[in-house]
Amino acid sequence: MAGNQKPINRKKALGRGLGALLEDSSNQNSKKESQETTVPAAGIHEIPLSEIQVNPYQPRTHFDIEALQELADSITVQGIIQPITVRKLAEGEYQLISGERRFQASKIAGLESVPAYVRTANDQQMLEMALIENIQRENLNALEIAHSYQRLLAECDLKQEQLGDRVGKNRTTVNNYLRLLKLPPDIQAGIRDKKISMGHARALINVEEVDKQLAIYRKTIEEELSVRKVEALVKALHNDPEEEKVEASKPELDPVKKYELGKLQQKLASHLGSRVSLKMDHRDKGEIKIPFGSADDLNRILEILEII
Questions:
Q1: Which residue intervals make up region (Disordered) (predicted)?
Q2: Which residues contact 278 (CB under 8 A, 6 or more apart)?
Q3: 287: which DSSP letter?
Q4: Taking the CB of residue 179, how many other CB atoms lie within 10 A of it?
Q5: Tens digits of residue pLDDT in 175-190
Q6: What is the C-alpha to C-alpha distance for residues 117 and 84, in angstroms, rounded to an integer?
């Protein structure tokens, strides 16, 4: 870096992402340098495919063979536009940090070598880089993203706010993905196999009884229900007939107020990543109910509310 070049500050709102992690790995042996100083990328090296090992921390569990072939065809015509990233283990021995699809497609295309950035990274940095690179650049399914988030929290010792910064997502979005891991295995498999969408899954999370979750899940697949219809089924499941009779006898709430209350309830539910019941009568009195499924779920909600 030239002596008169000013450090480049990245905006926190965009998340640190893979680029910042790569810079960190380049800087790990220089404690005196500022964390916000941009380090020039190392030169691109042409490395034989035979000298590159796959990444043991690769979060993707399934590669679409047809998509890989399409990428291989593109590489045959255009070459590799974006170099892969590796770390050097020994002389003539490298390990992938990111770019496994490009690596695998290059093999299919019959290439003998690929352009690559060579970085220094320990095992934890390898895991973090691989996870974030996949989350940001690959078309992962919702369950793979959820597992990646969980691994970043557990194995990289990150807190949810730090994780949000890393992947450029707010904490509510991160929470919504993590909650998918509380669903029964059958429903998780349905997400993985794209039998249901993230929207379907988020509706099913609000059903507390597993047998009822599975019943709605099977009905969703059999009848190809939309997200809106699944949400209606879940809502009907929570409605108490006796309570509805009492409510029906009360004066009707002003339509404008009712609409605003509904929007506020949706915002609260989205922010907390949990089902919320917000009620108000014609005298502007009411209550907010926030159910939770476990002690961990309660702590999560309390953290969001900044009570603990």
A1: 1-42
A2: 261, 264, 265, 268, 286, 287, 288, 289
A3: E
A4: 19
A5: 888 899 899 999 999 9
A6: 6
Task: Please identify which of the residues 23, 100, 128, 133 carries the catalytic annotation.
Answer: 100
Among residues 306, 273, 269, which one has the least CA distance to residue 288? 269
- For residue 35, what pLDDT is reported? 31
Residue 100 a catalytic site member? yes
Mean pLDDT for all residues in the chain = 76
Q: Which DSSP string corresponds to 217-263?
A: HHHHHHHT--HHHHHHHHHHHH--HHHHHHHHTSPPPPHHHHHHHHH
The pLDDT assigned to 134 comes to 66
Can you list the domains of the chain with their CATH numbers?
Answer: 12-140 (3.90.1530.30), 249-308 (no CATH)
Contact between residue 85 and residue 119 where contact means Cβ atoms under 8 Å apart: yes
- pTM of the full structure: 0.46
